[in-house]
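Sanity check

After download, print the first record. It should look like this:
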Amino acid sequence: MGRFAGISQWTKPMAFQWQKWQHKKANKAFKKQFPAQVLPPDKWLFETFQTNYVKYTVEGNLCAKEIIDWSKPYLPEDDLWKILDWGCGTARVTQHIHQHAPYSLVYGADINSEMIQWNSQHIKNALFHSLSDQPKLPYPDNFFHLIYGISVFTHLPIQQQITWLHTLLMALQTGGILILSTHGSYFENSLTKKQRSLLQNKGFLELAEGVEGLSAGDRNCSVYQNARILKDVFTKDFQLIQLYEGKEFPTIMGGQDLWILQKK
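Expected structure tokens:
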């Protein structure tokens, strides 16, 4: 998530230990109360969300419910929905989708093969596949009714976003729904005056680009975008159903801009 974007490579280990200590008591109580709940390693929770077991479980379920609620009016009533969590990480959201869309096939895909292996072993209500660093999906064209990517574009450079957008477009059926989140105006106050100026002039801002050891998709590679300009990109091949700008709706996606798009 964007909450910890910008943590330096040097301070990341300290931030991880601080989070573990901060949630230690609550996490211990959670495991005692819900001993059957499967949880990924803390280091992965830190990388993809935060080391808070309650939030990982409860907010993951809430996010899954919201995604289905937003999409349901546009999905066929008499068809088996095929749903993809693109950039699923540790399946925080993926594992709850089937609860809210029982008549569906749920897929999760991520570039982290270790997480995908863990998901496949522990999450039995979805199918998981590893992705390469190339903008390709291991699925046929026109396959999915719904694809969502939460906190993925927030860490992908602009050129990769454009390429991936085409890949996601091809994987969706006509009329299919694409849900994405981006860093928008809500986060401008966390930027310097110079960075805000660059964002306004270019329409986007990529931070930590070119830093040694930092790759696209890493939580420290943060991308900020102007929603007005991004709208022109998205609506080339999609109809904009709804845009929840984080500054106006900060509770919907932690301040990120939320885009609900339909393939034309």
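If your output differs, re-run the checksum step. Summary of this record's structure: The chain has one domain: 27-263.
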